[in-house]
């Protein structure tokens, strides 16, 4: 038996792309709002169900729904930011209270999504749990379409994010708001609006990742929940202060989880796969306890700047 | 009519039992989060630790103290046989039942203390946000082991544990609920006592201003460790009580039920306020049970399972509390020294 097969590596690359899309948002929101956002889980799940609704009701191609998911989930995050987080931030609430607020939002969304999935099932008469859509995917050179699409979406997102943040006026305003809110306000930047932009982008990317999810694995109302630890892991391993570190974090975690456990299970025994969920948690704990700034925060990178 | 009355009694008994179990766990969270300000997002770590200890040890301890011959049965495959052997002792002797209960709680407390020391390692080094995420990760790890490592509690199907209240016969639920309420009262009084001691005042000082506390010579790591260990012991005891009350254990200790819900209860009552913890737990369960009670009358009208309304309402309630009354229903009272003059 081969130690690992091409399909395993392809799986790992799909997983890495999706994780990066989710993780980069966690990092962006941490940098802008200084809050580890638990509601990211609901962004992913909502993105998945928006896409699924379009596929099930209008019979769209699974990939056409990506922009719609982006906008709808971005809209959800604006509600969270302006209705819940802004009032709390204005009162200078502690980080713990902001965290619990995102969590409360997530729990409310869990209820909303559960009710929505049930209603969809009642009205459309299609099963809305354990959704698989990979059979609607195309195949190219022996690999599923999701392989090409997820990687291209991630690359496009990374490049677009880079240009938007580093090269445009909006990006300069955004970076100024991240660095020093008071100073940014004093030169006339509307920091609240800038944070809103950041939330829209971060949540939109998570929504796209969620929309791609049923093409690769099962979609459930708890999909985001299952992945939230992995999202934080990606963001932390990449460095919570370094935006693009999340892409490296995604690759590392996906490789560690899929290739690592598959290879080790071949060598050590199948029982090992039961412990797969521990991988992101251990990785995250080790990085936090030894090098809390993550890969992006390491001194090596200073030389390239 | 009589049947209806019995239903109400059973309903109330179960409600009080759950309030009691959660009160023990919540007191454990209150000392860490409310009093000391540790962002304990991994409460489930200690709770599941205590629960799995109870699951792993209850039958073994019973076999040991009642001198039962296992006849070569192992504790997972022969779980039902051995547990009913232990039950035959607890059925006839209340004292045997209490002895077993006490042993299991002590074992859970020891495990809770160890887990507390483990989770205090990141608490000493990391800031509130990083700490919250690390503790969240810690919490998940134990449940994964409960699922994957079958010798512990038999994997996903779980195992049953001896009924330490079997001696009460038909009144089992009365006996168990009363015991749980007494234990919860003890936990409550203990934390009430801790808050009033110099230790409690130091913990609050650390929460309110780390630098000021440090400048007065307070050793922050040591005090954080103490708070986390006390909290983890209580949380682990709560987990063990939950298992003994339910009579079985499965690896289903999620961050939702055993971390987030306790957080929400504390927020509802008022962070750091001990009366608030009690009120928050009681009010939360009452609302929850009322929703459950009315959900069946809504079942036909709505196109979805009414259980989702629980999540929706609870999430919204917490956000409303955070925005409009962040100090909770019953805010924490400032510490008062003995003999301090009351102003007006």
What do these coordinates show?
- The complex is a heterodimer of chains A (about 300) and B (about 350).
- Chain A has about 300 residues and is an all-alpha fold.
- Chain A has a domain at about 15-220.
- Chain A contains eleven helices and two strands, in the order ααααββααααααα.
- The mean pLDDT of chain A is about 85.
- In chain A, helix 2 (about 40-60) crosses helix 8.
- Chain B starts with a helix and ends in a 20-residue tail after the last helix.
- Chain B is globular, with a radius of gyration of 21 Å.
- The model of chain B has no long low-confidence stretch (mean pLDDT about 85).
- Chain B has one domain.
- Chain B is about 75% helix and about 0% strand.
- Chain B has 13 helices and two strands; from the N terminus they run H-H-H-H-H-H-E-H-H-H-H-E-H-H-H.
- The longest helix of chain B has about 35 residues, at about 1-35.
- Chain B has about 350 residues and is mainly alpha-helical.
- At the A-B interface, helix 3, helix 4, helix 9 and helix 11 of A face helix 4, helix 5, helix 11 and helix 13 of B.
Which regions of chain A are unreliable across 5 or more consecutive residues at pLDDT < 50?
A: none
Biggest beta sheet summary of chain B:
2 strands, antiparallel
Distance between the termini of chain B: 56 Å
Enumerate the spans of chain B where pLDDT stays under 50 for 5 or more consecutive residues.
Answer: none
Mean pLDDT over all positions of chain B: 86
Largest interface: A-B, 53 and 48 residues
Relative helix content of chain B:
over 70%
**Radius of gyration of chain A, taken over Cα atoms and rounded to an integer in Å:** 19 Å
The shape of chain A is: globular
Q: How are the strands of the largest sheet of chain B arranged?
A: 1-2
Largest sheet of chain A: 2 strands, antiparallel
The average pLDDT score of chain A comes to 83
Number of helices of chain B: 13
What structural class results from the helix and strand content of chain B? Answer: mainly alpha
* Rg on CA atoms of chain B, Å: 21 Å
Helix and strand succession of chain A? HHHHEEHHHHHHH
